[in-house]
């Protein structure tokens, strides 16, 4: 089983971001949230603590904004209530401006062994326009600092930002590739209601076209492969053996428990005490105050309010295995797709080691292939 822990606090909100995170929260709220999280870990441990934990991902928000003593204490409580494997991958999301040597040393002491650093761009005009709190130099120097403590470091990049050109994308990927052994490259999603979407609607900012953004993604892929960072999922690249085990779990049917506001869980087996229909997906309330109140009123993990809950039927299980598995370069177990790929589409698929995956051309038209394969 995997564990995701959500820390929904940021120093300020970036112009493109629709993630469940808030800025400007008072210390009292942060304290109440962390206390509720603590309580939730205990309740979840009572329900699922016997499960072996293979990965932990502390995401946000901006986990690195918090005092590192608080991160240490979250991991300590987690270790007291779950059986975390000795070789577990334990990741934390960090924003460049809040990384310090002291925090890195504390993370290491707490057992964290993987850094995911949000860089987004190395172009200062882009960084300013999307409201990032770091510039190019800070991003580069903090990645180098993190590498002094951790072998395993990733950075996130968004392409399709206002000032992107072929030259800026080429330059930033070439600069970052030698500094990390994993990179996530996302195309900008203009999330409704975000300041960036509003500026774009009002014509106050001009964004690259979809075709240009597609070109930037291809360019990034080409450069990363030259540096030995090979695409293993639609948006993810890694050097050999450095794939993110936690995220791979999401795409390959691993069970996970999401702890914290808005966190999603996927459970395949009942906890034994409270038999529940499985497999099941559920999510906590996104609102941090609703989450805090819900956890504080609950005496057992399954009494914590759920904002969403869905028991998967046979059709859902098939659709999810195909949809998620085909995002990865490994693909899905061949047996699953037997008899489901129409003859005229077979050229978009390849077989290796008992797995069916998409060819490069197939990846480019994945959504239209899925429409033909998924069960309605
Ligand atoms: C949970 S978020 C935040 C991580 C961290 N707080 C940061 O800002 O660096 C993880 C990643 O999602 C990506 N992301 C967030 N919003 C996005 C959007 N609207 N379009 C594309 N990528 C986005 C960013 O690359 C970001 O680093
Ligand atoms: S991108 Fe990261 S730092 Fe920016 S608002 Fe979203 S979660 Fe916070």
Spatial shape: globular
For the record, the CATH architecture of the largest domain stands as Alpha-Beta Barrel
**SSE-based structural type:** alpha/beta
Approximately how much helix is present in the residues? Answer: 25-40%
Distance between the termini: 29 Å
> Which CATH C-level class of the largest domain is it?
Alpha Beta
Task: List its traits.
376 residues, alpha/beta, TIM Barrel, 2 domains, nine-stranded mixed beta sheet, three-stranded antiparallel beta sheet, 14 helices, 17 strands, globular, binds S-adenosylmethionine, binds iron/sulfur cluster
Structure commentary:
With 376 residues, the chain is α/β, with parallel strands linked by helices. The chain folds into two domains: 2-248, Aldolase class I (TIM Barrel), CATH 3.20.20.70; 316-373, no CATH class. It is 39% helix and 22% strand. The chain has 14 helices and 17 strands. The strands form four sheets. Strands 9-10-8-7-6-5-4-1-11 form a nine-stranded mixed β-sheet, with helices on both faces. Strands 12-13-14 form a three-stranded antiparallel β-sheet, with no helix packed on it. α1 runs parallel beside α2 (68-81). It is globular and about 55 Å long. Bound molecules: S-adenosylmethionine and iron/sulfur cluster (SF4). Residues 10, 13-14, 17, 19, 21, 60-62, 95, 118 line the site of iron/sulfur cluster.
């Amino acid at each position: 089983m995997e564990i995701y822990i959500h820390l929904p606090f940021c120093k300020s909100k970036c112009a493109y971001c629709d993630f469940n995170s808030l800025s400007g929260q008072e210390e009292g709220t942060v304290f109440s949230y962390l206390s509720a999280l603590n309580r939730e870990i205990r309740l979840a441990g009572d329900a699922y603590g016997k499960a072996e934990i293979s990965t932990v991902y502390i995401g946000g928000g901006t986990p690195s904004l918090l005092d590192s003593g608080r991160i240490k204490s979250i991991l300590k409580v987690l270790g007291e209530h779950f059986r975390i494997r000795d070789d577990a991958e334990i990741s934390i999301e960090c924003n460049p401006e809040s990384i310090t040597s002291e925090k890195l040393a504390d993370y290491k002491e707490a057992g964290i062994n993987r850094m995911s650093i949000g860089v987004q761009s190395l172009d200062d005009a882009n960084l300013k326009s999307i409201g990032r709190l770091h510039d190019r130099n800070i991003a580069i120097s903090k990645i180098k600092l993190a590498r002094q403590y951790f072998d395993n470091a990733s950075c996130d990049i968004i392409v399709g930002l206002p000032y992107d050109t072929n030259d800026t994308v080429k330059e930033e990927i070439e600069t970052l590739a030698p500094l990390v052994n994993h990179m996530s490259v996302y195309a900008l999603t203009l999330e409704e209601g975000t300041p960036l979407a509003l500026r774009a609607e009002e014509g106050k900012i001009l964004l690259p076209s979809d075709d240009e953004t597609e070109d930037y993604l291809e360019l990034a892929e080409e450069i990363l492969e030259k540096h030995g960072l090979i695409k293993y999922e639609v948006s993810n690249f890694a050097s050999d053996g450095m794939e993110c085990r936690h995220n791979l779990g999401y795409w390959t049917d691993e069970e996970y428990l999401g702890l914290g506001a808005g966190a999603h869980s996927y459970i395949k087996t009942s906890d034994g005490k409270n038999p529940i229909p499985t497999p099941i997906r559920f999510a906590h309330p996104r609102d941090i105050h609703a989450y805090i109140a819900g956890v504080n009123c609950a005496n057992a993990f399954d009494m914590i309010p759920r904002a969403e809950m869905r028991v998967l039927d046979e059709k859902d299980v098939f659709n999810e295995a195909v949809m998620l598995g085909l995002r990865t370069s490994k693909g899905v177990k061949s047996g699953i797709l037997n008899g489901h790929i129409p003859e005229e589409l077979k050229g978009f698929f390849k077989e290796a080691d008992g797995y069916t995956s998409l060819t490069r051309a197939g990846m480019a038209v994945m959504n239209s292939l899925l429409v033909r394969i998924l069960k309605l």
